[in-house]
Amino acid sequence: MTSWQLQDAKNKLSELIDRAQKEGPQVITRHGVEVAVVMPYAGYKKLTAPRQRLGDFLLASPLRKSGLVIARDQRTALRTIDL
Fold first, then answer.
1. Which CATH number fits the domain that encloses residue 32?
2. 50: Cβ–Cβ under 8 A, 6 or more apart, which residues?
3. Which long-range contacts link 73-82 to residues 24+ away (Cβ below 8 Å)?
4. Contact 26/37 with Cβ under 8 angstroms?
5. Does the predicted model carry a pTM greater than 0.85?
6. How many Cβ atoms sit within 10 Å of the Cβ of residue 27?
7. Which residue spans within the chain are E strands per DSSP?
8. Over the stretch 18-59, which tens digit does the pLDDT of each residue have?
9. Strands (E) located in 10-72
10. Would you say 26 and 20 are in contact if contact means Cβ atoms under 8 Å apart?
11. How many other CB atoms are there within 10 angstroms of residue 53's CB atom?
12. How many structural domains comprise the chain?
């Protein structure tokens, strides 16, 4: 990632945004300390999108109403485990 001093970032905001779109995230520093990141909006949306839960994924499956029935194979006995 390219690093920009705060004063340079303020003076060259258009260039900073152009480079973020072309090259990826750009770090802004103040007194040598990293304080902010400028990144393309699409990347931000991807990072902040809510994660889909497995249950939601399965409920949205087009196979949900297919009539498929899955049953456990009963031909073998369950093993016993000492706890």
1. 3.40.1620.10
2. none
3. none
4. yes
5. no
6. 15
7. 2-5, 26-30, 33-38
8. 999 999 999 999 999 999 999 999 999 999 988 888 888 888
9. 26-30, 33-38
10. yes
11. 9
12. 1
Enclosing domain of residue 11: 2-59
CA distances from 18 to 13, 22, 38, 39 (A): 9, 6, 10, 10
In sequence order, which residues have a C-beta less than 8 Å from that of residue 59 and are 6 or more positions away?
A: none
Residue 20 neighbours by CB distance under 10 Å: 19
Residue with tokens 């770090």: 27
Residue 77 lies in a domain: no
Q: Determine the Cα–Cα distance for residues 80 and 51; give it in Å rounded to an integer.
A: 37
Question: Which residue in 3, 4, 24, 22 sits closest to 12, CA to CA?
Answer: 4
Indicate whether 72 pLDDT > 90.
Answer: no
How far apart are alpha carbons 55 and 60 in whole angstroms? 9
Q: Which two tokens stand for residue 33?
A: 């300390």
